[in-house]
User: Fold this.
Amino acid sequence: MTEAGQWTKVASLAALKSGQMQGVEVADTQIALYHVDGEIFATDNLCTHAFALLTDGVLDGDVVECPLHGGCFKVKTGAGMGLPVPCDLKTYPTRIVGEDIEVQV
Assistant:
């Protein structure tokens, strides 16, 4: 188990190609990783509207669409983009160390 605030290796940069997303679990938290505009971003992987993994949805540029009801979020900021989304997603700091993607939870 990882203590809060620690950096944790979650994926290989080579495994997350540009324009893709991947779900990972850190300390019992479901996190979505996104490779957008040459950067790695991380948010909660569960839609704030209903229980659905965002990584089962569609990534279009810097917007992820929930697979259940079409709610959309900006992956860079976690900002919800209107109904049916009731609130923004939590975001997490990311960094690249060598060829590894690390997330701070």
Q: What stands out?
A: The beta strands are 7-12, 21-26, 29-36, 39-44, 58-60, 63-65, 72-74, 91-92, 94-97, 100-104. Residues 7-104 form a domain with the Rieske Iron-sulfur Protein fold (CATH 2.102.10.10). The two ends are 12 Å apart (CA to CA).
